[in-house]
């Protein structure tokens, strides 16, 4: 679109709200409100072609390096691929395939891309990003061992249930506080569909936003209780956050079989492992000063994954029945009380307006917990499921649990946001914002993420660092608290950083000659084998690439350890690539249960 490049140039020339790493946290912000071409922005956010999605992702390496001498990038060691017997699978790490499958684990999920030929390809594939079986480890992205690959097997079901064309997939979200078997895929039409992994059956849960809501991004709270979608209302001109409550169930569609790690019934808004059955739109939150929200991240304050069984050992959740008061008590004040969120918050960016909004989710988490786990009378109200005033009630019917905007902060060209997966007095939550100039800003949250009052005046800048130009996406390092990964499109680089109480700091960087245009990264789930593996979407390179960033340990199968590189001493190793008939821009995967 001819309007996008001048818009980027004019806004990039404005004074920055916060300087780079050497600036003191107390430095006052200088902010100029841009004059926006609203019609051009709507066209830009509606453009889902290759060029349109690229503009939405922001300037690339070539934009920043025009006229400069060609830069020599390192060449990370590529692990050689070997065939399993009969050539059914490929592997890289281990002493060789064994007859016994041994402890098995894999990570699999959805890869979104802009197809070169939309008449032939849809733009959502299901890919296995890692696999450990028969004594060997596969660190290259591969087609699934079971079910369809291109397109994702749920694509036909999405099209079947939608009354109109569903458009291009533009985002996919999962909760990051534990397992999320099924990804929630947002499409340009406002259609929201679900798809999972080879072993996660799908109820084809779906919902479509009203036609006047132009959707731009989506986030799931970390234990899959809520989906939050940023929208521009084309009738009112307002920016809004749609709040959608999620229902998951362990019962298969036939009602006869059950997934042991999921609830026995339907409990909208309760933490779950992503066996999603349904959605309900509770309502919309207006975003003051942000008419065109561009990214969102939402979390609850509970990140515990272990379910305590009745005997005190770890066990599956299906042994608990919250129709019984004693079991409800266990989740309210017993051994499993730490599983239920009591507070939470969301961070929303408006790149066009140079603003970031912080939203308090405490009321809705509190009401969900009270409804399910206190008295029989309260619990029975949750059994009257339905639309409007029925459980769970819309904000119009029950305004007391509607989330509220606590503060709107000036931040220059925010490209991505992320909320820390922790919130207590010892480890207060942080809101982290990436800006187009490369600045990473970490904010205290004034009590957001902790039960109790929130003080907007205590939402302050803790500090900044610089990761390189146009960090267009942020994701979690799985395991450590307040550790993140930035995809730095403008420098062709992946950057790890930590956000401490004094501000964020870069911890490591990855560059590779084969990585041409990184726009999204995700770290793989692990089970049994311990490793750090990331999958990167290479937009112009038309591929995804896996990198291992440390030792892989066969923890539950002998303890063998394998470092990176030919001698096991490198910092990184390339696991392999997978080519796409288009431009990948979203990676979203989960452990295959």
Task: Supply the key terms.
mainly beta, disordered N terminus, 8 helices, globular, five-stranded antiparallel β-sheet, 593 residues, four-stranded antiparallel β-sheet, 34% strand, Methylamine Dehydrogenase, Chain H
CATH superfamily: YVTN repeat-like/Quinoprotein amine dehydrogenase
Mean pLDDT: 91
Regarding CATH, which class?
Mainly Beta
Head-to-tail CA distance between termini: 43 Å
Helix content: 10-25%
Shape descriptor reads globular
Percent range for β-strand residues = 25-35%
Q: If strands are numbered along the chain, what order do they take across the biggest sheet?
A: 3-6-5-4-33
- Number of extended strands: 33
How many structural units, i.e. domains?
A: 1
Rg (CA only):
23 Å
* CATH overall fold name: Methylamine Dehydrogenase, Chain H
Enumerate how many helices there are, as a single number.
8
Structural class per helix/strand content?
A: mainly beta
Q: Report the major sheet.
A: 5 strands, antiparallel
């Amino acid at each position: 679109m001819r309007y996008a490049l001048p818009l980027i140039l004019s806004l990039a020339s404005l004074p920055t709200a916060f300087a780079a790493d050497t600036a003191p946290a107390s430095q006052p912000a200088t902010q100029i409100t841009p004059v926006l071409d609203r019609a051009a922005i709507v066209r830009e956010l509606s453009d889902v072609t290759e060029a349109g999605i690229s503009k939405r992702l922001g300037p690339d390496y070539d934009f920043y390096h025009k006229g400069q001498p060609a830069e020599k990038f390192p060449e990370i060691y590529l692990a050689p691929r070997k065939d399993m017997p009969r050539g059914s699978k490929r592997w890289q790490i281990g002493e060789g395939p064994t007859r016994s499958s041994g402890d098995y684990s894999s990570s699999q999920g959805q890869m979104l891309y802009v197809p070169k030929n939309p008449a032939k390809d849809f733009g959502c594939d299901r890919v296995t990003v890692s696999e450990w079986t028969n004594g060997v480890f596969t660190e290259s992205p591969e087609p699934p061992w079971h079910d369809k690959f291109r397109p994702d097997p749920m694509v036909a079901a999405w099209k079947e249930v939608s009354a109109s064309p569903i458009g291009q997939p533009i985002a996919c979200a999962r909760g990051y506080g534990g397992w999320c078997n099924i990804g929630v895929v947002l499409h340009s039409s406002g259609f929201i569909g679900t798809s999972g992994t080879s072993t996660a059956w799908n109820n084809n849960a779906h919902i479509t936003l009203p036609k006047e809501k132009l959707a731009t991004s989506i986030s799931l709270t970390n234990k899959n209780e809520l989906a939050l979608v940023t929208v521009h209302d084309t009738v009112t001109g307002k920016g809004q956050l749609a709040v959608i409550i999620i229902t998951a169930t362990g019962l298969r569609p036939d009602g006869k079989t059950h997934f042991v790690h999921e609830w026995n019934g339907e409990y909208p808004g309760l933490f779950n492992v992503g066996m999603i059955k349904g959605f309900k739109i509770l309502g919309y939150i207006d975003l003051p000063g942000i008419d065109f929200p561009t990214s969102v991240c939402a979390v609850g304050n509970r990140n515990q994954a272990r379910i305590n069984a009745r005997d005190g050992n770890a066990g599956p959740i299906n042994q608990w029945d919250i129709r019984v008061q004693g079991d409800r008590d266990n989740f309210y004040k017993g051994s499993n009380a730490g599983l239920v969120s009591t507070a939470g918050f969301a961070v929303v960016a408006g790149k066009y307006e140079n603003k970031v909004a912080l939203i308090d989710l405490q009321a809705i988490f509190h009401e969900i917990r009270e409804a399910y786990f206190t008295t029989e009378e309260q619990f029975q109200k949750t059994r009257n499921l339905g639309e409007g005033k029925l459980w769970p009630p819309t904000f119009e019917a029950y305004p007391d649990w509607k989330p509220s905007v606590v503060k709107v902060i000036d931040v220059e060209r925010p490209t991505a946001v992320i909320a820390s997966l922790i919130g207590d007095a010892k480890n207060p939550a942080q809101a982290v914002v990436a800006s187009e100039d490369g600045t990473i800003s970490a904010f205290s949250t004034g009590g957001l993420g902790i039960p109790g009052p929130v003080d907007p005046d205590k939402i302050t800048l803790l500090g900044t660092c610089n990761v390189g130009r146009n960090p267009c996406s942020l994701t979690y390092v799985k395991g450590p608290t307040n550790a993140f990964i930035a995809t730095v499109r403008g420098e062709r680089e992946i950057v790890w950083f930590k956000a401490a109480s004094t501000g964020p700091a870069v911890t490591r960087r990855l560059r590779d000659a084969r990585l041409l245009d990184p726009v999204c990264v995700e770290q793989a789930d692990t089970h049994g084998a311990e490793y750090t593996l990331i999958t990167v979407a290479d937009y112009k390179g038309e591929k995804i690439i896996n990198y291992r960033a440390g030792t892989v340990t066969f923890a539950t199968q002998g303890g063998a350890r394998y470092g990176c590189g030919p001698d096991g001493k490198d910092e990184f190793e390339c696991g392999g690539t997978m080519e796409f008939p288009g431009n990948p821009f979203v990676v979203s995967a989960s452990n295959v249960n």
